[in-house]
Amino acid sequence: MSQRWLITGSSRGLGRALTEAALEAGHRVVTTARDPASLADLIDRHGDAVRTTALDVTDPQAAARAVDLAVEAFDGLDVLVNNAGYGDVGSVEDTDLADIRDQIETNLFGAIIVTKAAIPVLRRQRKGRILMLSSVGGRIGAPGRAAYSAAKWGMEGFAECLALEMALVGVKVSIIEPGGFRTDFAGSSTRLSAGRPEYHAVVGVQAQRQTDYNGKQPGDPARAAQAILTLAELEDPPLRLPLGTDAITILKAADARRLAELERWQELSVSTDFSIEADEP
Fold it and tell me: pTM for this one?
């Protein structure tokens, strides 16, 4: 069945791969980028099935226009994909507050802004999907990526709350957590700063690893796109869907560490309750 999609950050990476896969599968797509000229070839190949528009996700008016375009062109919206984002590498001490704020504005507030623009349409329809492109770094502290992880952790908390609300009006929310994929995310899209030597074991190593890893990531963007298309059609989709063998490995290990730590310190945790004697009359 053909669906009506709105995908942010469509000029490259997973956003581009997903846009192309959705169009090739027969869906209709509003595809967005800061510079819509980068999307012109999609119109040449797919004609009226695609609309392109400029979108800075931190601009509420631009987000509203993108949603309006979907409604005007396709008479509604079935799938919103909050994909736009980026993440630089650097220590907390050496990263300017403005840079931290910019990453959080784009990765977190951008997703919130576009989601809020789409919710009234989805609520009136009483159906639809909201897909949040998070990351493995949305559940673990990614080395050297404090601002990025702060934004993605925030996105995941926002999406969990949103899912409970949207379920009441027939809208389903899923969080997608990719591992390493061969996109531009690890290349020119990222600023790398090894920083001062005190943080080399975390930040410097991560900066070098990212350089060495680029082009060798295990994830195939085209296969990720197909997995996301499948997710968007599931009657009972998961709240979270990690993508890639590395994502599964990392998250299983992280969850095991969290459970072990929870159990180790459980006695101290529960010591904060009122005593039974204090509750007795």
Answer: 0.91
